[in-house]
Amino acid sequence: MNLLTDSFEFGLHTQIYFGVGRLQELSDIIKKNDYKKVLICTDKGLATSGALKRLETILESGEIKYEVFDEVEPDPTLRVVKKVEKIFHDSQCEAIIGFGGGSSIDTAKGVSIAVANPGDLSQFEGKNQVPNKGPDIIAIPTTAGTGSEVTHATVLKDEERKYKMGILSQHLHPKAAILDPELLTTLPRGLAAITGMDALSHAIESYTSNQAQPITEALGLHAIDLIGKWLRPFVADRTNVEAASHMMMASTIAGAAFIWGRVAAVHALSHPLGGRYKVAHGLANSILLPVVMEYNLSTNFGKFKRIADQLGENTHGLSERDAAEKSVKAVEDLVKDLDIPKTLTAINVELSDEEIQVVAQEAFDSGMTSANPKNTTVQDLITMLNTIK
Predict the structure, then answer these.
(1) Which domains are assigned to the chain?
(2) 354 CB-near residues (< 8 Å, 6+ apart)
(3) CA–CA gap between residue 47 and residue 372 (Å, rounded)
(4) pLDDT tens, residue by residue, 329-354
(5) Residues 35, 95 contacting (CB under 8 angstroms)
(6) 85 with 77: CB under 8 angstroms?
(7) What is the pTM assigned to this prediction?
């Protein structure tokens, strides 16, 4: 980017409360914003693990009225959003708490849109299509992956079309985000691995994107550094609060990076794989990331060398090209060390040539590949999918 000729935007509108034990401040945050009653969006896993009970105890101690919806699905759907919207209205709530992974926070964002904007949510797909601001959102992530707590985006699944659509609006920035690393310590190992890789894909794609700018580059590179140092120890022992703290921070920083620096071919392909074949988002990103990096290497060897350096590779004495190639090896080694499958067949997803064509076309039509540093055609996407079969 040439700062003499180019311009960019960057902004965060979310008040972040970071630190071990800061969940205890939830009632104070609610009172500060004068919400009389809140709706909690969460999932069955958190409801049965005891985490939801901990949240309820804090609210009850603060004499905060609340309603609970604990049926958030792994890929939040338009159907569920409309169901929760009715609960919000019937219970006369004033704000929404997204408590969980990206699915819970994205559901909360979808509900906020639906409450203030009648009609089919699909009409708001894309950027800046939401006319009215809905109720405030408090995001409380329990995974270190999506970064949704600081983004103005939500991804919702249209089950009829088997399609995951993105809605981006300034109205979707959460009012507050509570980042308490203690909430990560009961995360299952496999989920910790793929959500951490989701954060890495955000960081790498935003750093190498053709929409990258100085602030997002700085954030992305720092997130890559943190993940390179802390993802392995975090997955090995989720009770390691130091590792959990660094991973939670990395996830949020990567979220701040990609909402302005954008994501590209990795996410373009992972969305239809999730929408059509229910491949978990972080898992799809893990499988795709090394392949897309390899494809993009020649666009900026210097950037990929820096990624290799941040991920702990020794690039001393190597040419920029050879050093850049180490970045792909570093990600492949990380995927291997975390016991994440490397192919779609390994997770029992076998695509025909016709299905690959459909996924590739849908990925291209999403518009996300426009941010890819290397020009990407439908045929290029087909080749990537064939590589991970």
Answers:
(1) 15-184 (3.40.50.1970), 189-387 (1.20.1090.10)
(2) none
(3) 39
(4) 999 999 999 999 999 999 999 999 99
(5) yes
(6) no
(7) 0.95
